[in-house]
Please model this.
Amino acid sequence: MKFSGKNVLITGASKGIGADIARVLAEFGLKVWINYRSNADLALKLKAELDSKGLQSAVVPFDATNEAEFIEAIKLIVESDGELSYLVNNAGITNDKLALRMKLEDFDSVIKGNLNSCFIGCREALKVMSKQKSGSVVNISSIVGERGNPGQVNYSASKGGMIAMTKSFAYEGAMRGVRFNTITPGFIRTDMTEELSEETKQSYVNAIPLKRLGEGSDIANGVAFLLSDHSSYITGEVLKINGGMYM
Model:
């Protein structure tokens, strides 16, 4: 994979899909900035793992929903490396319950948490990357943002909004040489899915044409492609990585 830039900021990168994205992008030679909000131990453990392989990484703690903290983090990265080449907006929250039991604050917290962090990141990245006249942003949405899911009215709305937001940023970024794309993961094997019963996991697999759960590396490789020069004529697109569950 060929990259013109040299570094990438990944929000929510201390574990799960975010950590796998960091591993893959570091292997491709990028310096990865590992963001976390509360679990420093996991972030430092990931950095140590990458260091042991001779890969470049740094840890940058901040709350992606906090505008001032996000702006300060990007400023720190630019001061350190001279640029912000790529951004992956991966941080997100859930608060699942059936709509009839969902209070407005339950809905509002997820909408604000997921959409605000994505907006702040895209806006600030566009500011920096416009000066460079180059850059690429990938926003991690979800299959439920395309097809919905019971018990996730708030999460589905936030992830669907992320898709629309990405397309609008793609229009504004195109004239400045900055690309914005979205990935919508399906059911991916994580620590959370490993806690499910075998029966529940099998029910998910049965609904997937490729008959397996996805791996974090499946998402990470998609991110790498959309950030890289190999996708230089792709912007405003949604890449479905779901094993055919939603086509």
User: Anything to note?
Assistant: The longest helix spans residues 104-132. The domain at 7-241 is CATH 3.40.50.720 (Rossmann fold). The CA atoms of residues 9 and 33 lie 5 Å apart. Strands lie at 7-10, 31-36, 57-61, 86-89, 135-140, 178-185, 238-241.
